[in-house]
């Protein structure tokens, strides 16, 4: 076949940078991925907290008052909500990847596990404070 | 049957011998409750505009050739009905594939990706064992063994999942949902011994790890295969393969 005389001229539509805005489905996916952004802020806070603890009492107190500011509280509340949302999507996807038990059972199990670990941490850390 | 109600179909046209880029054309099509998108296309071709190009064959969601975008969502034309849409219908060729003409897409990449994962039973001892003296034995399979991969075995190669996959859109070398599902289907088959031959493809950068679990592929699959689940099961297999590889000399 000689390519020169081929009447073929396939047209490929370019994929724009805004591809993910086109669909409800893609927007939901991007939202799920975006939950990592507020989490980064929280991790930064946490690291700063450990650092200030090591620096002595004054810097620890400074960190505590920083964390108590309304905008920091609001951002961290957002982080918490975003993480719960991410957990929900993750827990629903997991049984499809590892179909060990019926999906509703696995989803319930994962939430129970999360609550148990959270309760344990609260108990341990709560005891220290 | 009397067809009095009409619907507007806006169809993307592209003639490689004349057009620089695609354009849109409107058609009025009479329809009733049983008119599929494919029926409407056939009506246009037969009664309004014989130059319209599109693919079809079985008309019953088996052959996978009538794939088009309907209002931006990948659909089988024969399994999608005009009655499901309240307004106009916008028909375009499959996203992420090059358009040959009108609604006809170039599926070469898709077929290459399917081929790349060796989607057939591979037996290691085959040639050695089937001498005239030793008659080939049937390979037995229990219902439980069948159930392991059955869900992933009903793919009709329609390519809808590729049109739904942004990762394939961004990187055409990504093997994509159907091919990776097919690989998983054969890897899970107890009669197959070709997993080791398929894993390098799956482990590679265009294999399972190219998937970020957008999950739209599973939504559009007309056979409800859940390709997203299959691909991510492939990730588990790939990770296991990697860890086992660490301990092998
Ligand atoms: S996995 Fe589903 S959507 Fe993808 S090619 Fe097969 S049948 Fe079509
Ligand atoms: S014509 Fe065969 S799947 Fe639609």
From TrEMBL, chain A:
Record-linked SUPFAM superfamilies: Fumarate reductase respiratory complex transmembrane subunits
Transmembrane region(s): 29-51, 71-91, 103-125
Keywords: Cell membrane, Membrane, Transmembrane, Transmembrane helix
Xref: Gene3D superfamilies: Fumarate reductase/succinate dehydrogenase, transmembrane subunit
The organism's place on the tree of life at top rank: Bacteria
Family annotation (InterPro entries): Fumarate_red_C, SQR/QFR_C/D
Keyword Membrane among UniProt keywords: yes
Annotated protein name in UniProt: Fumarate reductase subunit C
Organism: Alishewanella tabrizica
Automatic annotation (TrEMBL), chain B:
Top-level lineage group: Bacteria
Cofactor: [3Fe-4S] cluster; [2Fe-2S] cluster; [4Fe-4S] cluster
Ranges where the 2Fe-2S ferredoxin-type domain occurs: 7-97
Enzyme class, broadest EC rank: oxidoreductase
Alphabetized InterPro entries for the sequence: 2Fe-2S_ferredoxin-like_sf (IPR036010), 2Fe-2S_ferredoxin-type (IPR001041), 2Fe2S_fd_BS (IPR006058), 4Fe4S_Fe-S-bd (IPR017896), 4Fe4S_Fe_S_CS (IPR017900), Beta-grasp_dom_sf (IPR012675), Helical_ferredxn (IPR009051), SDH/FRD_Iron-Sulfur (IPR050573)
Catalytic activity: a quinone + succinate = fumarate + a quinol
EC number: 1.3.5.1
Comment on bound cofactor: Binds 1 [3Fe-4S] cluster.
Family affiliation: Belongs to the succinate dehydrogenase/fumarate reductase iron-sulfur protein family.
NCBIfam families with a match to the protein in the record: dhsB, PRK05950.1, PRK12385.1
Designated name of the protein: Succinate dehydrogenase iron-sulfur subunit
């Amino acid at each position: 076949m000689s390519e020169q005389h081929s009447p073929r001229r396939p047209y490929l539509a370019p994929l724009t940078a805004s591809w993910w805005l086109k669909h409800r489905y893609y927007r939901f996916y991007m939202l799920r991925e975006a939950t990592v952004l507020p989490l980064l802020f929280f991790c930064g806070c946490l690291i700063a907290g450990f650092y200030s603890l090591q620096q002595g009492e004054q810097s620890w107190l400074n960190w505590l008052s920083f964390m108590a500011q309304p905008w920091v509280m609001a951002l961290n509340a957002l982080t918490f909500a975003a993480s719960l949302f991410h957990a929900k999507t993750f827990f629903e996807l997991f049984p499809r990847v590892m179909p060990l038990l019926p999906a509703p059972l696995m989803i319930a199990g994962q939430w129970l596990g999360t609550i148990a670990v959270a309760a344990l941490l609260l108990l341990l850390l709560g005891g220290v404070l | 049957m009397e067809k009095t109600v009409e619907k507007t179909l806006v169809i993307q046209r592209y003639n490689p011998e004349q057009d620089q880029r695609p354009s849109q054309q409107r058609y009025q099509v009479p329809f009733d409750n049983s008119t599929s998108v494919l029926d409407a296309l056939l009506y246009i071709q037969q009664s309004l505009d014989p130059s319209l190009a599109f693919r079809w064959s079985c008309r019953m969601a088996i052959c996978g050739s009538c794939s088009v975008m309907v209002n931006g969502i990948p659909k089988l034309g024969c399994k999608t009905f005009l009655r499901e849409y309240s307004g106009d219908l916008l028909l375009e060729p499959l996203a992420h594939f090059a358009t040959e003409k009108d609604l006809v897409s170039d599926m070469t990449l898709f077929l290459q990706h399917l081929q790349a994962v060796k989607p057939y039973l591979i037996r290691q001892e085959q040639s050695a064992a089937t001498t005239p003296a030793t008659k080939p034995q049937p390979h037995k399979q229990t219902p439980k063994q069948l159930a392991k991969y059955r869900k992933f075995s009903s793919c009709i190669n329609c390519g809808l999942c590729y049109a739904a996959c942004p990762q394939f859109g961004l990187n055409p070398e990504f093997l994509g949902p159907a091919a990776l599902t097919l690989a998983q289907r054969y890897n899970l088959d107890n009669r197959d011994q070709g997993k080791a031959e398929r894993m390098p493809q799956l482990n590679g950068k265009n294999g399972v790890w190219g998937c970020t679990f957008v999950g739209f592929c599973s939504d559009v699959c007309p056979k409800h295969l859940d390709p997203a689940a299959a691909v991510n099961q492939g990730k588990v297999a790939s990770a296991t393969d990697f860890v086992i590889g660490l301990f092998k000399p």
